[in-house]
Amino acid sequence: MKDVQEVNFDGLVGPTHNYSGLAHGNVASMSHVGLVSNPKEGALQGLAKMKSLLDAGFAQGVLPPQQRPDLGALRALGFSGTNAEVLSRAAQEAPQLLRAVCSASSMWTANAGTVTPSADAPDGKVHFTPANLQSSFHRFLEPETTGRVLASIFRDQAHFAHHPALPATPAFSDEGAANHTRLCGAYGEPGVHLFVYGRQAFGGTREPQRYPARQTLEASQAIARQHGLTPAQTVFAQQHPDAIDAGVFHNDVIAVGNGPVLLYHEMAFLDEEATLEALRAKMTTPLIPVRVPSEAISLDDAVSTYLFNSQLLSQPDGSMTLVVPGECQENEAVWRTIQDLLLAGANPIGEVLVKDVKQSMRNGGGPACLRLRVALSEEERQAIGGRVLLDEALYTELTAWVERHYRDRLAPDDLADPQLAEETLTALDELTRLLGIGNVYPFQLGH
Ligand code: SUG
To answer: Does the annotation count 184 as an active-site position?
Structure first.
């Protein structure tokens, strides 16, 4: 058995992190619109989470933010002139577009793409597909750069295979790993891939009525085909439409899996029994379902505290650590349920770590949204390009970099400030050198 470890690649919170309420169906994003954000605090909160997991013995990676404002996108939409003119025209004529091209949403790397570890792929390589994120304009701007970043880090073709994002059209709407869970014994053993979709593009059944379903069955099936996964390795399950209508815009807001454990709310799947049955039938190791009923935690509490957006991480002895956002501690029912989980003998969850990621939470991103999981063998870890695996020195340098470049207050009206675009460019230029990831940005300032 190869020594396979899960590496969590967290997205760095970018310098333009702000509250523009861009994400329809994401209750936190919609309700915090207009607040003044603190990008510096957001980035430091993210780095502190990464550092504490590193200190706890987990492998931790980091992914860079994207270049925002995306002036190229504004130019493609017909705004012309100097950069300052492009920004001020957009601010006057189409403020909603300016806000979209400034979003720091690439921090939520659970939506960067879908990853299949080499143990499951027929060619023995780790497979990547960037998510097309076509369901919102601000996130549709991400996949091109995401693809370049992933290809730069996982550049060794002997170990890594990259696929194009799916066609960016509603039938293939794809939001990446947030709707994908790999269940297995040890990470190096064969796994079963649970793909959760919100709707079927061609001939679907029930759909949510209030908020959009962001993942289609057709997209999930296409990803499985790209990665060479067979029907024996995959389960496709529909997310409960009522959960989507309550603000569960991704499966990772209502369920989290790790190894053989699936921690989920009873409203996670439209057909709970069939989903568990299909998993049991295909897994080579016994599934450990941990079901949280609505009587214990209401859907609304699940959404406001993000309990299920926790990270579930394996310790070397097989026990698991649950990394929850601070909001869970502030809700009595949720905190009591966590204590019950820790005490119950029937699951391996033995420890809870509470992390403050409030800046991200106000836009609907908890601990699990902030990370992309990549299970890697020792040889594959060695093949990684750039300096993206966190250690003490990199943490110190990244913290100093944030302190040097980030603002501690950003109101939606500040987004048109050409100075902000310059600052971001300078910061990212320095970051690419610090991380050794090469030219992944379409740099376009300085004129
Ligand atoms: O796509 N929020 C993100 C949050 C993504 C959370 N990811 C996971 N659940 N995996 C979204 O809804 C808000 C951005 C803004 O308002 O600027 C936003 O895009």
So the answer is: no
Q: Which among 16, 19, 26 is the best mutation to test ligand 1's pocket, defined by most ligand atoms within 8 Å of the CB?
A: 26
Domain positions in the chain are 5-68+103-435
Residue 286, number of CB atoms within 10 A of its CB: 9
Rounded to whole angstroms, the Cα distance separating 413 from 401 reads 25
DSSP-derived secondary structure for 372-384? EEEEEEHHHHHT-
CB 66 less than 6 A from any atom of ligand 1: no
Please give the DSSP secondary-structure letter assigned to residue 229: -
Pull the structure tokens for residue 229: 């996964």
**Cα angle, residue 104 at apex, residues 144 and 23 outer, rounded to 5°:** 95
| pTM metric for this prediction | 0.97
Give Cβ neighbours of residue 130 (< 8 Å, ≥ 6 apart): 112, 113, 142, 143, 146, 147, 150, 164, 165, 176
CA 221/CA 240 separation, integer angstroms:
19
Give per-residue pLDDT as tens, 20-68: 999 999 999 999 999 999 999 999 999 999 999 999 999 999 999 999 9
For residue 269, what is the DSSP state?
B
For residue 103, give the nearest of 79, 60, 133, 58 by alpha carbon: 133
* Paired tokens of 73: 């996108």
In which residue are the tokens 């793909």 written? 195
Starting at the edge strand found earlier in the chain, the sheet holding 4-11 runs 59-63, 4-11, 371-377
Fold exhibited by the domain 5-68+103-435: L-arginine/glycine Amidinotransferase; Chain A (3.75.10)
